[in-house]
Amino acid sequence: xxxxxxxxxxxxxxxxxxxxxxxxxxxxxxxxxxxxxxxxxxxxxxxxxxxxxxxxxxxxxxxxxxxxxxxxxxxxxxxxxxxxxxxxxxxxxxxxxxxxxxxxxxxxxxxxxxxxxxxxxxxxxxxxxxxxxxxxxxxxxxxxxxxxxxxxxxxxxxxxxxxxxxxxxxxx
Length: 172
Hints:
Elements: H1 3-32, H2 34-37, H3 53-69, H4 81-104, H5 116-128, H6 148-160, H7 168-171
Helix pairs in contact: 1-4, 3-4, 4-5, 5-6
């Protein structure tokens, strides 16, 4: 397999993982998986959250792909591209950890961006946290962030329609 094919698989996987993360966040974490995700939306002073268990799910996905891509002890039935898919999932996990846990929630370092895309990411995620329940909400992605002004308007409309419980201060 050529290096270009390998790079294409890794990059395509990283990009695809943002869509997987968005859908998982919206439909699992804010759905039947709310029990693990709830404490992420609540103030606390604990080092770890139940929500961190989702990172273990991502790690299991990556490890599974590495296992599928590894040559078996006996025979040659492995699917080699799976190794590179596993690497892409691993890279996305690193990006997620640095951006979401590090930059947005400042779990690992203190830096408040004043401008640019990093500021937009922080604003979009803070608007995501404006909802006080699993229903409604905006900005379920972790690396892609929409315009905060449009997100505020969406939240306001959700509040007025009774879809989401939103703190007024967060959308003013």
